[in-house]
Design goal:
Elements (H helix, E strand, L loop, with lengths): L7 H23 L7 E9 L5 E4 L8 E5 L1 H11 L8 E5 L2 E5 L2 E2 L4 E5 L3 E5 L8 E2 L15 E2 L3 E4 L2 E7 L2 E4 L3 H8 L11 E4 L2 E11 L6 E4 L2 E11 L16 E11 L5 E3 L4 H7 L3 E12 L4 E5 L7 E21 L7 E22 L17 E22 L6 E13 L8 E4 L1 E9 L30 E9 L1
Parallel strand pairs: 2-4, 3-5, 4-7, 5-8, 6-11, 7-12, 8-13, 11-14, 12-15, 13-15, 14-16, 15-17, 17-18, 18-20, 19-21, 20-22, 21-22, 22-23, 23-24, 24-25, 24-26, 25-27
Antiparallel strand pairs: 1-28, 9-10
């Protein structure tokens, strides 16, 4: 009888292979009745990184687009609040469609959306709490009563971040637009993101779709960064403003693309007597690398609610396409307040109704209690280094009788008129200023002084430009 000799090494390898095969079979049987674990790793830049993380799925979240996750978001954020003084926390929203009503954020907190995550705004009105009207407005914008809380809301916070890998927040606004047009709303429509009375805010790298009304509304806040936001709504949708800094200090808006039914960026500070009494201006605002499409509104609007004042706005490297006006100042008798020290440069405009529009006759009022003697001060408006084509009218500049808009400076601007342009490219009344190297020839109230001078633009940076980002990285494992 012959014996086959097998080496001890070969026996050991065979045993290992059998053990691995058995383990694989056991694992296969074990996962038949449950979901496999999913691993997500991601990195992003932020003003703060967090020490603690959780997924919305850890709190019963279901991303099927049908199940309400309002309670899951509230439970998750309440649980994570325990880490506010221990390095902060982050809530991760993985791929899926997450239906939810309004929920509130906390301090030292990050909400992070996966690139394939979609927050779907609930159309159940019961999932939207009602808040009092903002004190600087005195009433809601849609109705005299209060307002529905925004989808993502926060107040009296510090160090709060809403970001992602270009994840999506869909406001499903058609429901709200229809109610608005039918006059059936008892309260003002909700916004997508509103942060108020807060400090150190970052909103970045998100896509916002079909907001019921305004998209991003920081109000009564400071040190705000809004970056890399894409905002899209039908150009006929009502009041779907893009980004509205409102009574805010030290704000930076950059690298945003906005298509909407209203102003792409609307700078505000309260309405009539309520804004005057509240007295909180918007100041130290930077807007750069903005692309806007809004056929019925403005690329950048200052007002019309500006009763607390607007000062030191710096906008540069702006592109406007098929937009009603480039830069618009809106105010009225009764507003009070001021718009001053405005600097805009390097703007390209394609297919516009007006390149520039200023009006002191924007007469919408909060109520009949406004002071007819409260006249706004408009001065120190500087536009330079701009080019436009296919424009119906170069400018419509209308101040207030007895309250002229002063210190208007426009330099190095070339406006190409459309084939069906207005016969008079400039209309001017109750304004004072000068121009340098502007085509077509401006109105008599803005005499051209040649090309040797240029309008001002501050070269020193604002404090918000000194903010440094950290590189944050996370490894999330969830069911």
């Amino acid at each position: 009888m012959e014996f086959l000799w097998i080496s001890p090494m070969r026996i050991q390898v065979t045993r290992m292979l059998l053990l691995l095969l058995a383990a694989a079979l056991m694992c296969h049987k074990g996962v038949e009745g449950r979901k496999a674990r999913i691993l997500d790793t991601f990195e992003y830049s932020a003003i703060s990184c967090r020490h603690h993380s959780a997924s919305i799925t850890d709190f019963g979240g279901v991303g099927d687009g049908k199940t309400s996750n309002t309670k899951a978001f509230k439970d998750a954020i309440e649980n994570l609040s325990q880490y506010a003084s221990d390095g902060g926390s982050q809530l991760f929203v993985p791929a899926g469609k997450w239906l939810t009503g309004s929920f509130s954020l906390i301090s030292h907190f990050t909400l992070y959306l996966h690139k394939d995550a979609v927050l779907l705004a609930s159309q159940d009105v019961n999932e939207w709490p009602v808040l009092k009207a903002l004190p600087s407005y005195g009433r809601g914008r849609d109705a005299a009563a209060g307002r529905f809380q925004s989808l993502i809301f926060g107040t009296n916070l510090t160090d709060v971040i809403v970001t992602g890998d270009n994840g999506t927040i869909d406001g499903q606004g058609a429901f709200w637009w229809q109610q608005f047009h039918k006059g059936k709303l008892k309260y003002t429509r909700p916004y997508l993101i509103e942060i108020m009375f807060s400090d150190n805010i970052q909103i970045s790298n998100l896509t916002l779709l079909n907001s019921p009304s305004w998209n991003v509304h920081p109000v009564y806040s400071s040190n705000i960064l809004v970056q890399g936001i894409t905002i899209i709504a039908p150009v006929t949708s009502p009041n779907t403003d893009g980004i509205n800094p409102d009574s805010c200090t030290n704000t930076r808006i950059e690298d945003c693309y906005i298509v909407s039914g209203d102003d792409c960026v609307a700078v505000k500070s309260g309405w009539d007597e309520y804004g005057i009494a509240f007295g909180m201006p918007t100041k130290q605002l930077v807007i750069r690398r903005l692309t806007c499409i809004s056929p019925y509104s403005a690329t950048i609007a200052l007002g019309s609610e500006m009763s607390g004042g607007i000062q030191d706005v710096r906008a540069e490297d702006i592109t406007a396409i098929n937009t009603e006006s480039g830069v618009r100042i809106k105010t009225a008798v009764g507003r009070g307040g001021y718009v001053k020290d405005i600097y805009v440069r390097r703007v390209t405009m394609h297919t516009m109704k007006w390149a520039f529009w200023m009006t002191g006759n924007y007469g919408s009022h909060a109520d009949k209690g406004y002071d007819p003697n409260a006249l706004p001060v408009i001065e120190g408006i500087n536009y330079r280094d701009m080019v436009a084509d296919n424009v119906s009218m170069a400018a419509r500049l209308e101040g207030i009788s007895g309250d002229a808009f002063k210190g208007i400076c426009i330099s190095n601007v070339t406006i190409g008129l459309s084939a069906k342009h207005k016969k008079v490219p400039w209309t001017c009344a109750d304004i004072e200023g000068t121009t340098y190297g502007v085509t077509p020839t401006p109105c008599e109230l803005l005499p051209d002084q040649g090309t040797e001078k240029t309008c001002d633009f501050p070269e020193e940076s604002l404090p918000i430009d000194q903010v440094e980002f950290q590189k944050c990285s996370y490894r999330m494992s969830y069911m």
